[in-house]
Write a structure and sequence with these properties.
Residues 27-268 form the ABC transporter domain. The protein is of the alpha/beta class and 273 residues long. The chain has helices at residues 65-72, 102-108, 123-134, 139-152, 156-159, 172-184, 202-215, 228-234, 252-255, 262-268, and strands spanning 15-17, 25-36, 39-50, 54-58, 82-90, 93-94, 109-112, 190-194, 220-224, 237-242, 245-251. Strand 10 and strand 11 form a beta hairpin. 41% of the residues are buried. The protein binds adenosine-5'-triphosphate. Adenosine-5'-triphosphate binds next to strand 3 and helix 1.
Length: 273
């Protein structure tokens, strides 16, 4: 990333003015740093993700948004040479504690990726698969859980008559909502969304945004997005990142209208990035 001299303008400390949920923080990022080999990508970042609210991670390409969201459910474990310092606590427990079961952790923090990635199986078995892996409920319970997740994902009415059809026969937007159903069928505490609309057309994007609004309150959602309008539309709090630091974490309506850091102001008004 070419920083055009902006690095000197990074505030010494993150500026916090985020909305606090009555239920408290669902996830606490506490002085967390991450290195890819010798390259440091996150620098002593602290962020409280509020329960039941939608938090957007925004910032220019390469600022560390994906690295941070992937650190939360330890997707970065799959990358060779990754090293971390600090803590990310889910319900008070550091997800990097040696005793943590990573499969269970990912069940508690469902993830949706940029490109819809359904399995080449039926619509139904895409949704029931995570339950078959962990809980192995009976057939009726599986069907009920799948229906519930598909309803929550706003897809039930479109697929209820063809649950046995190949998931790959769905449109891109439907596939992404199917992936959301698959991510929420295990009732995760947190839903992580890494640019979930970047491969979708405007109509499918609007459907996913509506869905995020509908999940709000029942799920804690963290969304990485390049799209500022989208962040402004869907989130309660927004964290602006730059060069691996969280510059400002605040109420979305304030971040997008009167941010407290001049660097945030310049970014949201398109002066760089
Ligand atoms: N697997 C990796 N190995 C080495 N460096 C990496 C790796 N993944 C990311 N990085 C580096 O870490 C920094 C943060 O990247 P990251 O993908 O988290 O940024 P981002 O804000 O999500 O960017 P974008 O918006 O373009 O997706 C960048 O400098 C990037 O080059």
């Amino acid at each position: 990333m070419n920083d055009h001299g902006q690095a000197e303008r990074l505030p010494k400390e993150t500026i916090y003015h985020h909305q606090v949920s009555p239920a408290g923080a669902a996830l606490e990022v506490d002085r967390f740093s991450l290195w890819y080999g010798n390259k440091q990508a996150l620098f002593d970042d602290s962020l409280d993700i509020q329960q039941g609210l939608v938090t957007a991670l925004i910032g220019p390409s390469g600022c560390g948004k994906s690295t941070l969201i992937r650190a939360m459910n330890r997707m970065n474990d799959l990358v060779k040479g990754v090293r971390v310092r600090g803590e990310i606590r889910l319900a008070g427990r550091n997800v990097y504690d040696p005793g943590v079961d990573v499969t269970e952790l990912r069940r508690r923090m469902g993830m949706v990726f940029q490109k819809p990635n359904p399995f080449p199986r039926s619509i139904l078995s895409n949704v029931t698969y995570p339950l078959e892996l962990t809980e192995r409920p009976g057939k009726q319970a599986l069907l009920e859980a799948a229906e519930h997740a598909l309803r929550d994902a706003g897809l039930w009415n479109e697929v209820k008559d063809r649950l046995g059809a190949d998931a790959l026969s769905l449109s891109g937007g439907q596939q992404q909502r199917l992936c959301i159903a698959r991510a929420i069928v295990t009732k995760p505490e947190i839903l992580l969304m890494d640019e979930p609309c970047s491969a979708l057309d405007p109509r499918a994007t609007a459907a996913v945004e509506d869905l995020i609004g509908a999940l709000r309150g029942r799920y804690t959602v963290i969304i990485v997005t390049h799209n500022m309008q989208q962040a402004a539309r869907v989130s309660d709090n927004a964290a602006f990142m730059y060069l691996g630091r969280i510059v400002e974490h605040g109420r979305t309506d304030v971040v997008f209208v009167r941010p407290k850091a001049s660097l945030t102001q310049d970014y949201i008004t398109g002066r760089f990035g």
